[in-house]
Amino acid sequence: MNALIRYHGVFATIAGRREERVELPDSATLLDALRLAGQCHPPLAEALFLASGEIAPYARIFLNGILSDDLKRPLPEASEITLLPSLSGGGDMPMRPLSVFKAPSDLIRATDRVRAGRVDASELAGDFTLFSIAAGAGLQVAA
Asked: Which pairing describes strands 79-85 and 2-7: parallel, antiparallel, or unpaired?
């Protein structure tokens, strides 16, 4: 079976690419795909996995657009796996949600709209001071 792995943020920088297709056994799990990505890009393995072998808490893994914590889940044919780092910052600023993104593709589309000049970034999140991902709640962008 084949799967498409999409890398975002620091994961794209570390892997040196935004996406790649990988070939996996038919019985492969999401964890198998992540381990293969780490084998192909050893620095990615260091960023993605803790010493215990668990996925780092700042890594968000999406399978076919849905946040997935079940890494032992078998992959369906032609799966799309997205690696998205949790983003945070802004010190002690109170969070004022402006937009909620349910899937990484929503954030990517919003970012593309800003880059193309079709929407001002301030309409989405002020100056993008604070980002946080809440498991199951999607990505919240706040000013």
From this structure: parallel
Report the alpha-carbon angle 135-110-57, nearest 5: 25
pLDDT of 105 reads 57
- Domains plus CATH for the chain? 2-85 (3.10.20.30), 97-142 (no CATH)
* Phi, psi (degrees; rounded to nearest 5) at 131: -125, 145
Task: Give the other-Cβ count within 10 Å of 139's Cβ.
Answer: 22
The CA distance from 59 to 49, in Å, is 9
The pTM (predicted TM-score) of the whole model is 0.63
Q: How far apart are CA 131 and CA 112, in angstroms?
A: 17
Radius of gyration of the chain (CA): 16
The mean pLDDT value of the chain amounts to 75
What pLDDT, on the 0 to 100 scale, is given for residue 69?
85
